[in-house]
Amino acid sequence: MRRLAPLVLVLVLAAGCSTSKPGEKIVLPLPTTIVGTVPKAQPVTVPPQYKGGDATAGKAVFTSSGCSGCHTLADANAHGTVGPNLDQLKPPLAKVIVQVINGGGAMPAFKGQLSVKQIADVSAYVVKATGGNPNG
Ligand code: HEC
Predict the structure, then answer these.
(1) Which residue puts its alpha carbon closest to atom 16 of ligand 1?
(2) How much distance in Å is there from the Cα of 29 to the middle of ligand 1?
(3) pLDDT in tens for each of the 136 residues of the chain?
(4) How far is ligand 1, taken at its centre, from the CA of residue 12, in Å?
(5) Number of domains in the chain
(6) 100: CA distance to ligand 1 center in Å?
(7) Does residue 68 sit within a domain?
């Protein structure tokens, strides 16, 4: 009888498992200890040389660089419809700068096409023309 003891234990455990039926809710064990910290959403970081653009000078960059062909911006008399309507979007400075540098979606990257100053200027212009803070 002593020899059977481990077997009885195994049977008890197995019986425990057999009570779960298909379709029953399965409760997964959750870790109770969290090591480290959950990464926060990264704020858009703008290289400092792109800040402090000249919005007035940026208007000419906007009209001569093709922005008008794809975007609507009343201040520049632009009626493009390929990209979002900037009057409605009112993008913050960091977003404009990052988008003009890198492009994305159907928009080309302007880094290399435009100088750092031109990118700074056109970004400040878009923000100012849509009522935002051109100094970010
Ligand atoms: C060939 C068409 C095209 C040209 C040229 C173009 N854009 Fe865009 N732009 C787009 C499209 C399409 C999107 C939407 C991209 C997306 O959904 O990811 C966009 C998005 C944007 C956004 C929104 C970014 C955001 O994160 O919401 C800004 C601001 C912007 N463009 C500014 C400009 C400026 C300034 C210029 C000129 C230097 C320019 N675009 C030239 C097509 C264009």
Answers:
(1) 105
(2) 46
(3) 556 555 554 544 444 444 556 677 777 777 677 677 877 776 667 889 999 999 999 999 999 999 999 999 999 999 999 999 999 999 999 999 999 999 999 999 999 999 999 999 999 999 999 999 998 7
(4) 66
(5) 1
(6) 7
(7) yes
Q: Which atom number of ligand 1 is nearest to the Cα of residue 122?
A: 35
Global model pTM greater than 0.90: no
65: containing domain: 48-129
Residue 7 forms part of a structural domain: no
Domain for residue 10, yes or no? Answer: no
The dihedral sign for the CA sequence 122, 102, 66, 105: negative
Q: Is residue 57 part of a domain?
A: yes
Which of 92, 110, 114 shows the shortest CA–CA distance to 101? 110
* C-alpha 112 chain-centroid distance: 23
Using CA positions, which residue lies closest to atom 6 of ligand 1? 67
Query: Where residue 82 sits, what CATH number does that domain have?
Result: 1.10.760.10
